[in-house]
Amino acid sequence: MSETNHTTIYEAIGGERTIRRIVEAFYPRVQAHPDLGPLFPEDIMPVMEKQFMFLTQFFGGPSLFSDMYGHPMMRGRHMPFPITPKRANAWLSCMGAALEEIGLDPTLRRVVLERLQGPAYHFVNTEDDTTE
């Protein structure tokens, strides 16, 4: 990504097609993860679509999420769920594995994961983790 041409992460990773591939590689990992899977509904498709819209917007693409649902307010939307540091780490680990699976360039993988670390840890709302 070059500062001089103001490329967004969305553009640098390949736009809509790549975001879709990330989401499709990510959620099977989340569902299978013992610390994350129980937080998600059995019908994961609506969650996947919201994640696609959010990541598109978050990485500098069209404002799909806001256009459909209003301001993301992601911390508030995650408050009903016990998000622990362990779960934030697991989420980031699943995302890293998904990015690797789809073959995203290692430099772009680092950029994406760095950008997602802030929100992942911002959503932490409890230290209590009875799954440890």
UniProtKB/TrEMBL annotation:
Q: Which UniProt keywords apply?
A: Heme, Iron, Metal-binding, Transport
The molecular function terms of the Gene Ontology recorded here are: heme binding; metal ion binding; oxygen binding; oxygen carrier activity
Q: Which SUPFAM superfamilies does the record cross-reference, listed alphabetically?
A: Globin-like
Record has Transport as a keyword: yes
Q: Which segments of the protein form a coiled coil according to its record?
A: none
Which Pfam families does this UniProt record tie to the protein? Bac_globin
Membership in a protein family: Belongs to the truncated hemoglobin family. Group II subfamily.
The record's listing under PANTHER family reads: TWO-ON-TWO HEMOGLOBIN-3
* Entry protein name: Globin
Q: Which organism does this sequence originate in? A: Paenibacillus contaminans
